[in-house]
Amino acid sequence: MSLPIATDENDSRLLKSRLPSKTLICGGRRAWYNLQCPLRKGIIYYRLWEKIFEHDLYSSSENEPRMIATLRQVSMSISFTLIPINRNRILLIGKCHEESYYDDDYWDYLRLSIHGIHSYRVGPALWTYDHYGHSNIFELQPMKSTTNALGITFGVHSESHMELFDISTDAKKGSYPLVEAGKLNYGRKLNKRVVLSPDRHILLHANQNRETIDVFYSGTGDTDNMDFSFVTHVSIPNPKGTNRKDESHGAPLLAFSANGAKFAVATSDGVVWVWDVRCKIPLKVFEADMPRDKPWSPWGLQFSSGILGREVLVFMAYEASTDQYLIHLIDATSFETEEILWLIPEPTQGNKFDWGIALFFEPSGSSMYASRGTTLYEWNLRKNTGPEWWLEET
User: Fold this and answer.
1) Burial class (CB in 10 A: 0-12, 13-18, 19+), 131
2) Is residue 373 classed exposed, middle or buried when 0-12, 13-18 and 19+ CB atoms within 10 A define those classes?
3) pTM greater than 0.85
4) pLDDT given at position 5
5) Which of 17, 121, 301, 353 would bridge with 349, disulfide CB 3.0–4.6 Å?
6) Do 119 and 61 touch, CB atoms closer than 8 A?
7) Which of 241-245, 265-269, 309-313 has the lowest mean pLDDT?
8) Where are the WD repeats (predicted)?
């Protein structure tokens, strides 16, 4: 079995070891999708076709993996997400958008189900909505809420605002369970690349010219009904001199840190910037060796929670010079340390085995996971010992 790196296992300031602490190969070498770890370290969820499985990497039980739900198989574009909610429960969201090959018709599939959590494992569904229809559910953006019993609400972006919806578990069986809960007014027309800070008071918008990020702010205390005001825009530096206005370049990726104090931007030419929300000048710039003839944005851009493990910023990029996928792991406190992990495929897969690529953390931020093809890897981060841990390192 090949390892995704080939360097000294102890040569890391961010990881306990550069060697994976766990490696899992999907049974039967089948295609798995939507890998995630919403509850605790080592318990992974993924989809094999229409079936959703739960797998404890640290269990030797013959019952692993365990199927927890079945979606209606609509097409390969079907996806699911698991989100912890109030009262020790978890929400499963399954969705798919399909367009007809023969006319302009389309349809959507939406599965919502609430499950109990027992010893960090997902239990049977306590409530379920599972239907086809015509709606904008494929654009639902989940976010935390303090104004409803479940502790979660959903945003649907429009040009000038974002409508908020809550889930009504009291709705008549079979009726649409999403009910209007509020509205976030932008104050101007924006495209779809909009991201809210965790507390919803800061809104970022990637301008269509791919050269600036617009920053909006709302100081109102009612997070379900907010009016945002334009504050400023920050210019996205272009160290490679790329013509980002070319249609082949996608919109920049945006990500907030867990506390909302920092945000990162990644462009399709492989450049990543980090800003403090209080400053227009980037804290740091990172460059990946991306192919110039095929603009391909880094993906998986995200900050870890930094609760137990050290807070890091990660993204994955395809490196043109080596024809490999690289994980960039960056200290998100000082931004002075960057480490790279090579995500090398299994020998039987070859370099072009590019499906099943994922990058994610467990909730406390103590472990990071990455997959390529049929193989999943786990790395453990060093402990977060305080806001100035990096100064104490020797």
Assistant:
1) middle
2) buried
3) yes
4) 39
5) 353
6) no
7) 241-245
8) 254-278
Return d(Cα 286, Cα 242) in angstroms, integer. 15
User: How many angstroms separate the CA atoms of 179 and 188, rounded?
Assistant: 25
| Rounded alpha-carbon distances, angstroms, from residue 315 to 94, 106, 138, 197, 297 | 25, 34, 24, 19, 10
Q: What is the mean pLDDT of the chain?
A: 85
Cβ distance 300 to 315 under 8 Å? yes
Edge-to-edge order in the sheet of strand 33-36: 33-36, 43-48, 51-56, 66-70
CB neighbours of 137 closer than 8 A, spacing ≥ 6? 95, 108, 110, 178
CA dist., res. 178 & res. 166, Å (int): 6
**Tell me, what DSSP letter sits at residue 15?**
B
Kindly report the length of the chain.
Answer: 394
- Cα torsion 67, 70, 73, 74 to 10°: value is -130
Q: Mind listing the pLDDT tens digit for each residue in 18-45?
A: 999 999 988 665 668 899 999 999 999 9
Burial class (CB in 10 A: 0-12, 13-18, 19+), 294: exposed
CA 148/CA 223 separation, integer angstroms: 12
> What is the distance between the alpha carbons of residues 393 and 306, in angstroms, rounded to a whole number?
17
For residue 95 the two structure tokens come to 């969705």
Q: Within a 10 A sphere around the Cβ of 339, how many other Cβ atoms? A: 19
